[in-house]
Amino acid sequence: MDIRQLKYFITIAEEGQITAAAKKLWMAQPPLSHQMKLLEDELGVVLFERGPRQIQLTDAGKILFNRARQIIELSDSTIKEIEDFKRGFKGTLNIGTVSSSGNILLNEGIAKFHKEYSGVRFEIHESNTYTLIDLLTRGLIEVGIVRTPFKNALFHCRYAEEEPMAAVMDKKYDWQSGTNIKLEELKGRPLIIYRRFDRLIEDVCAFHGFSPEVFCRTDDARTSILWANAGHGIAVVPASAVTLASHENLRVKIIEEKRLRTQITAIWMKGRYLSLLAEKFINHFTAI
């Protein structure tokens, strides 16, 4: 039993037909059937139940199918890891980041990573959390820098420090001189909501017995801040995002509400190869 035979076997199981599998593998059907016969003889079991139109895996075939995929993935991961080693930590790291991540990619830990691995180049994809999760599951990026909350069952997570949400506004909307407010103080005021937190804000306001007066919803924290800076309403954004856009006219109020706290999080897929470059990057991401 070798890697080549296991790849043949997996293709047949996925295609459900020897003919279709042979076509996908760019080989003739008789040699493929012969390889499967050799594999069955070596293992001493029948792997397929051959029907008139499709083949089905036997119980033994199902066991081999699950193990074969693990073996192939381990083999591929080992090859990639050796390639990383030979390159001496040089190459391109594909990461995704949300617009509200602020200066997280410019912090001391990432600066140290760049100094230690100066041969690394970056491809940065900037979008919202849900788009980045889609890019990650499709393998187009290796690490995502996203914000909680999100469904994390598919991912390994490395969390940065938790932070509050802030209400930012032009002075004409400022009703008091303090730097902290209660969520209830936003009742009846025109809010500019970063759509990423729309449902969360709705739910927390409902918990406090009122519905938010949403003037505008945006897909980018920077847009929310710019609209607030222009005097169009009160933006509700993560506190660290305030510096992402022009805010010289803004008053910043930290919202004292535990349910509205959020975290920047580095995520990567469970059960998928993670390059040494990405591993080092993640370690530096939360180094401080």
TrEMBL record:
<comment type="similarity">
    <text>Belongs to the LysR transcriptional regulatory family.</text>
</comment>
<dbReference type="Pfam" id="PF03466">
    <property type="entry name" value="LysR_substrate"/>
</dbReference>
<feature type="domain" description="HTH lysR-type">
    <location>
        <begin position="1"/>
        <end position="58"/>
    </location>
</feature>
<dbReference type="InterPro" id="IPR050950">
    <property type="entry name" value="HTH-type_LysR_regulators"/>
</dbReference>
<dbReference type="InterPro" id="IPR036388">
    <property type="entry name" value="WH-like_DNA-bd_sf"/>
</dbReference>
<keyword id="KW-0805">Transcription regulation</keyword>
<keyword id="KW-0238">DNA-binding</keyword>
<dbReference type="InterPro" id="IPR005119">
    <property type="entry name" value="LysR_subst-bd"/>
</dbReference>
<dbReference type="InterPro" id="IPR000847">
    <property type="entry name" value="LysR_HTH_N"/>
</dbReference>
<dbReference type="InterPro" id="IPR036390">
    <property type="entry name" value="WH_DNA-bd_sf"/>
</dbReference>
<dbReference type="Pfam" id="PF00126">
    <property type="entry name" value="HTH_1"/>
</dbReference>
<dbReference type="GO" id="GO:0003677">
    <property type="term" value="F:DNA binding"/>
</dbReference>
<protein>
    <submittedName>
        <fullName>DNA-binding transcriptional LysR family regulator</fullName>
    </submittedName>
</protein>
<keyword id="KW-0804">Transcription</keyword>
